[in-house]
Amino acid sequence: MTKSVFFDDLETRSKDQRNVDHLNKLNKLIQQARNNENQSLRLDCRINDLSDLSSIPLLRKSELIDKQSKNLPFAKLNVSEIKNFAHIYRSPGPIYDLDGHSKNWWRFARALYAADFGYGDIVQNCFSYHFTPAGAMFEEAAKILKCTVFPAGGDNTDLQLEVMQTIGTTAYVGVPDFLKIILEKADEMHVLLPNLKKAMVTGGPLFPSVADNFKERNIQTFQCYGTADLGLVAYEAAANDGMIIDEDVILEIVKPGTGKPLQDGEVGEVIVTVLNNFELPVIRFATGDLSAILEGESSTGRTNKRIKGWMGRADQTTKVKGMFVQPSQINQILENLKINNNARMIVSRQNDRDEILLKIESNLTSSSEVEAIQNKVSEEIKNIINLRGASEIVPINSLPNDGKVIDDIRDFGE
After folding, report:
1. Closest residue by Cα to residue 329 from 62, 37, 67
2. Which of 21, 29, 73, 336 could be cross-linked to 96 through a Cys-Cys bond (beta carbons 3.0 to 4.6 Å apart)?
3. Helical (H) or strand (E) element with 354
4. Boundary of a domain, candidates 315, 330, 360
5. pLDDT at 270 over 70
6. Which residues sit opposite 227 in a β-bridge?
7. pTM
């Protein structure tokens, strides 16, 4: 039996069919959400057309973190009781997430299908299976497509390589930089991986040099865009063709800092409404990510709108090695060490790897004192952000007076 090009018929429906379906699902979702007093506060408007969605106030990720901290774990926004969830997750922030029992709840099977994952593939899932949902997201998707999955997680390059060679891994799922590290280890150890032909990467940008490296190795690599709060948002189905918006998502691009929609082609903040999450309805969620709607339709025949992809952050929060780094975390590091001076986190890129450096103003001059505080700061970076990072003591008043706490100076290409 010949495999269909499309995951389902939803991918090729007309714009009018999609809009009618989305409007019906949206009103059903809003009706469900109104059963929750805290949700209903935002949903007192009437939705007769999808354009009316812009009248609903945004829910920002930072606001959700604050709301949850005051009413743990879900800010009393869940409609279903916790006992009816399939899983509960805790992501950096901290923020609590969940999933339900319905098939393909996270919807990532659509993305893997477009990347030609399927029966016969041995998938090495290098996302974490602990605390955060990434591992479970792709585990579910791969199993729906009848792939065989090795639950690898994101540590121990040597063992990853050993397993990849031993079981004949055909497809990788994980952060792009980690695959590059594994492949470099294979070169170093003179290990051949002839079966590895596919990769689905997310959780961090796919830099041009890394993409070229995979292409040279004949690994067909696709990207998708999703979060622990939303599941799949958009996915690639062909090279240089943008990311197609998921069929159970309404995606808006708005002027950063506002809820005002922008015209197609204009760069703005990504706002997402998820149409299949009735356990805790997510309506007009402001991701803080930047992107733009592309003109026209995908060359693959899929008819939904496409976005250009992840184009940076609308706020100072950024993503490093698959982990969000937020100004509040920098402040927590300083508070833990009782440092009251100005500081700035510099996110850079060296030798195709992300690096973080926390610069802190201080009048310390003793080399031993400077070294001691830098070591403590590095330890706190690991504790709070769960990433390895360096620190540097700089003179008082040497950092720019522009309010920046995080400065992402990586070059994301065109």
Report:
1. 62
2. 73
3. strand 353-361
4. 315
5. yes
6. 231
7. 0.79
Helix H, strand E, coil C: the string for 205-264 is CCCHHHHHHHHHCCCEEEEEEEECCCEEEEECCCCCCCEEECCCEEEEEECCCCCCECCC
Query: Do 255 and 291 fall within a single domain?
Result: yes
150-161, pLDDT tens digit by residue?
999 988 999 999
Three-class secondary structure of residue 144 per DSSP: helix
In this structure, are residues 224 and 111 in contact, taking their beta carbons and an 8 Å threshold?
yes
**Distant-in-sequence, close-in-space partners of 310: CB < 8 Å, separation ≥ 6:** 205, 225, 289, 290, 291
Tokens representing 93 are 């922030």
Angle (nearest 5°) at CA 226 between 223 and 231? 130
Summarised one tens digit per residue, pLDDT across range 383-414 is: 999 899 999 999 998 988 665 678 889 887 65
Cα–Cα distances (Å) from 2 to 43, 68, 113, 220, 252, in that order, read 46, 48, 14, 21, 36
Domain that holds residue 36: 9-315
Amino acid at 117: F
Are 118 and 2 spatial neighbours (Cβ–Cβ below 8 Å)? no
**In whole angstroms, how far apart are CA 30 and each of 23, 54, 319?**
10, 14, 31
As a whole number of Å, the CA-based R_g of the chain is 22
List the CATH number of the domain containing 174.
3.40.50.12780
C-beta atoms surrounding 290 within 10 Å: 19
pLDDT tens-digit map of 310-356? 887 777 778 898 888 887 788 889 989 999 888 889 999 988 889 99
324: DSSP letter: E
Name the residue among 4, 26, 46, 13 with its Cα closest to residue 252. Answer: 26
Distances in Å between the Cα of 382 and the Cα atoms of 162, 385, 391 are 27, 6, 12
The one-letter amino acid code at 122 reads I
2 within some domain = no
User: For residue 199, which phi and psi values (nearest 5 degrees)?
Assistant: -150, 135
